[in-house]
Structures are given as C-alpha cells and as structure tokens.
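Format notes (please read before filing issues)

Several people have asked whether sequences and structure tokens are stored in separate files. They are not. Every record keeps both together, in the order shown below: the sequence lines, then the token lines. Line labels are part of the format and must not be stripped during preprocessing.
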Amino acid sequence: MRLLLIRHGQTPSNVQGLLDTAAPGPGLTELGHRQAAEIPDALSSEHIGGIWVSTLVRTHLTAAPLAASLGLEPVQLPGLHEIAAGELEMRRDHEAVRVYLETVFAWGLGDRSPRMPGGEDGHEFFERFDASIAEVAASGVGTAVVVSHGAAIRVWVAGSAINVPPSYAGEHDIQNTGIIELEGTPESGWNLLAWQGTPIGGSDLIDDDAQDPTGETLEEALDED
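Then the structure lines:
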C-alpha cells in the first residue's frame, strides 16, 4: 500500500515554538486553515481509500477539507498522536527542545531505551505508532492518508524506512502540511518514495517567522542562534 503521512496544519504553539503535545491540543491558525484547505486540490490525482487522524484536534481540522471533498469519514487511531513532552510540556527554551529532540531522534536512530522525562520511551512509541499503522494497512486500501505530527512522523519514518539511513529524517524538515510518501506493508517494511518538507499546497503557505522545533532539521532546531 501507499502511505501518505501529512503533518497537521499550523497551530499557535507552532508559531511560538512551544512543545505542546497534550490532548486535546490547540486548533489551527488562520494560515493553518488555509494550509488544510489546499490539501484536496494538491491530492486530487490520488486515489485515496481512507483517512486516519490522531486523537488531537489539529489533525481532525487538517483532515476535514480532504474528507469533505472525498466523502470520507476520518478514522481516529490512538497511536498516531504526537510524542508526549512529559515534564517538558509547554516549554520552548533551548534546553527543553534539546532534551526532547535528542531523546526522540535517538529512538529513530535505533536506541529506543531513552525515556522522555515524565513520558514514554522509544519502545512504547514505536509499539503504539506501529499498531495504528498496522490498522491502516489492514483496511486494505491502496492509498491511505494519515494526518499526524512532526516529531512522531519523522521519528517513525527514521525507524521504519528500509531504503534510507535513519539519520535522513533528522536531516530533513517537515513543515506544517508537509507530506511524506511511503510504500510497503508492516510485514515487508516501508520504502520512502518522496519527502516534501514544505506545505503540500505550495510555498506561499510557508511561515518563515514561525519557531517550530519539531518540524525543523536537527541542526536548525538545536542551533541556539
């Protein structure tokens, strides 16, 4: 099957650079709604068989225009939510961002033992995200859209794509409504076909002023300057 992983549209916390991961989470900014509204046209040539979202509000709002255009009802899955920041929740300082990103990308690079302060470890993250992707695959659709979150998408791809090195995900950004395309199955593994880090609707939907550590490359996000 083809798996289209789409990061949700921009939220106020993305603009401020906050580690905002708890449920139900914020809604979308005005730009975020415009980003979501562009998705149906951008994917008009795709034969999408189903749409899946996380438990957080921002993924539902992002998926809504595409779901309406296709006459599909998005399915919520519990394992697709963002990687919880735990004790770092709602912080934006460099130290908190460093601990968060170094923890989650260690998982993607193969060391799943580090635990987020007050949160999950890599084994728990991959177990719940893999379980939800397995449910998507079990639906039998040829092309599936999964609307999820920046860190969760990148770390899962880092640990799951078999045709690129795990470091690839940390070296490439994924802005709001960026899209990553994979092909495969949970049993055979996933091949990365395309990584579009910019908003799917076009470069005019980029917010260059947003402070967005979970969407930036590791080098950008960890640069104190």
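For reference, the curators noted about this record: The chain is about 35% helix and 15% strand. The first helix runs from residue 12 to 16.
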